[in-house]
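Because showing beats explaining, we think one record worth quoting, sequence and backbone structure tokens together, and here it is:
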Amino acid sequence: MHEDDLKNQLTIARNEINNLRQQVRNLQHVQRKDIETINRLLQDFRCEGCSSKNAKGKDKQEMIVLQASSNDNNVKGCDDVAHFKPIGVIRTAFPEKRAVPRQSSVGSRLRSSVELSDSFFTNPEHSLEGLTDFSHMWLIYHFHRNNNHPKAKVAPPRLGGERVGVFSTRSPHRPCPIGLSLVEIEKIEGATISFYGTDMVDGTPVLDIKPYIPYYDAPVLSVDSGRTSVLPNENSADFYDSRQEPDGEESDLELYGAAGYSASNPNADGLSGNVLQAAPLPPLPSAVRVPNWVVASHRLSVYFNEHAEAQLLELQVHKQCIVDILEADPRSVYLRTKYGSQIFTFQLSEVTVTCKFDDKAGSVTVVQVRRNENIQVTALDGEPRNT
């Protein structure tokens, strides 16, 4: 055997060893996630017969959690504590934080709902009268699944590891863990609001609901002073799509205004073969100024193999919903930089989607879409397991 052949075999062996080490690290990460998930399930477990009995106690517990979060982050010398009690809960297609859209515009085709409780009003549906006259609303909610301690500086994915102040980002790990999303109202039935624009995990506690009024909410340029202000301007496109990276990193800010994504044709998905290309971002209003790293577009091309295409038809899954999630790259900075191109799975309502990222090509291919009950070997946080 020639010396060159031996060197090649040695190189291959070393690569295989490195791959095995990486798989071990990946499995360790999955194990930690499994343990966290099991602990959370045990803490949140309630028998079906006890649900109604514990409803009031659950509301009280939520208020205590928010209070504890505020207590832990008191400003030195300030003893004031804000007490908040959720007015309801958000129901979405995402049982876990994994792959939750980073902005409401990314999940603009995903229907969710807000269910108001009767803890404040005997007839909570009365509090929603008149809201149907508005097309959009602001949802203010609690990041109840974030357990990490907030940091003064965070590293947005687009800055390549560079850190900036947390208040110049939309990181969910904040001193006061409050979320804000602009969503489109579909319909209101009783005390339940159906909406489009999902960027929350299922079970998120709602703190407040406010109607979106572009007449006051959109910043415009004052003609008299030349300064940015909030003036009546119904034609201004709103750029406040709030979203936070669901797994702890700061998000991309996709600047789709409410008018932008609601007026777009949902059937115009740019289909070319089995790949869907992302549409260009609309221009910013003239009065708005944001850093360049925020507006830079980093969208992936999304492909579906023949097997996945057939499963979509069989399960009647809306293809564009999956495209919207994947083209924005739902992976955290940790997964993207630590493991690079990899298999990625996530749950979307009743199905589990499996895909393969190709970071060099800037693309992702969906290889399988299956019902959740048919998945036999899957980690609790969605990571695939080899058997």
Summary: The helical segments are 3-44, 55-71, 214-217, 258-263, 292-295, 306-315, 319-327, 333-338. Confidence is low (pLDDT under 50) at residues 55-61, 67-75, 228-278, 374-387. The first helix runs from residue 3 to 44. The first strand starts at residue 88 and ends at 91.
